[in-house]
Amino acid sequence: KPNKGLEEVVIKTVAAFGNAQGGSLLIGVRDTGEIGGLERDYACLGADQDKFQLHLRSLLGNALGQTFTTSKLRISFPVLGDTEICQLVVSPASRPLVVKVADKNGQPVERFYVRNGNSSREMPLSEMPQYIAERFG
């Protein structure tokens, strides 16, 4: 069964990179830099590399649109030492990416994420018009 928490982090991070200047997300590498690999991710999905990539593309395509994932997302599987990881390279989006997520009550709400240093942050509604005008205008 897919890890919903991880899926939400991936969607949020890819959207934030797309809304900013792009970036690279590594799956299978811990925040400490330790290489963990993809075995647990593959096991959760009952998948191999091909099915894992198809799952990521489907997940991100549904959340961010097929146009974005086809033209602005590159997925590769580099091997570090003898451990395979997944790298998502995200190019800057052509238009703002708004993500629908569930709130505390399970109701869908729209969120706009941007990168701030090394973290993905929700942009306050009051700051969105200026940011969008500067970044996409």
Describe this structure as you would to a colleague:
With 137 residues, the chain is α+β, with helices and mostly antiparallel strands. The protein is built from 5 helices and 8 strands, in the order αβαααβββββββα. The protein has helices at residues 4-19, 39-45, 49-64, 66-72, 128-136, and strands at 23-27, 73-76, 79-80, 83-84, 86-90, 98-102, 108-116, 119-122. Strands 1-5-2 form a 3-stranded antiparallel beta sheet. Strands 6-7-8 form a 3-stranded antiparallel beta sheet, covered by helices on one side. α1 crosses α3. The longest helix is centred in the first third of the chain and has 16 residues, at 4-19.
The gist of it:
A hairpin with a 2-residue loop joins strand 7 and strand 8.
Which features characterize this protein?
137 residues, alpha+beta, 3-stranded antiparallel sheet, 8 strands, globular
Q: Report helical residue fraction.
A: 40-55%
Total helical elements? 5
Oligomer: single chain
Looking across the biggest beta sheet, what order are the strands in?
1-5-2
Number of beta-strand segments: 8
The whole-angstrom Rg is 15 Å
Q: Mean pLDDT, as a whole number? A: 93
Strand content: 25-35%
- The unreliable regions are none
Order of helices and strands: HEHHHEEEEEEEH
Largest sheet: 3 strands, antiparallel
Structural class: alpha+beta
Write the layout of secondary structure elements.
Elements (H helix, E strand, L loop, with lengths): L3 H16 L3 E5 L11 H7 L3 H16 L1 H7 E4 L2 E2 L2 E2 L1 E5 L7 E5 L5 E9 L2 E4 L5 H9 L1
Antiparallel strand pairs: 1-5, 2-5, 3-4, 6-7, 7-8
Helix pairs in contact: 1-3, 3-4
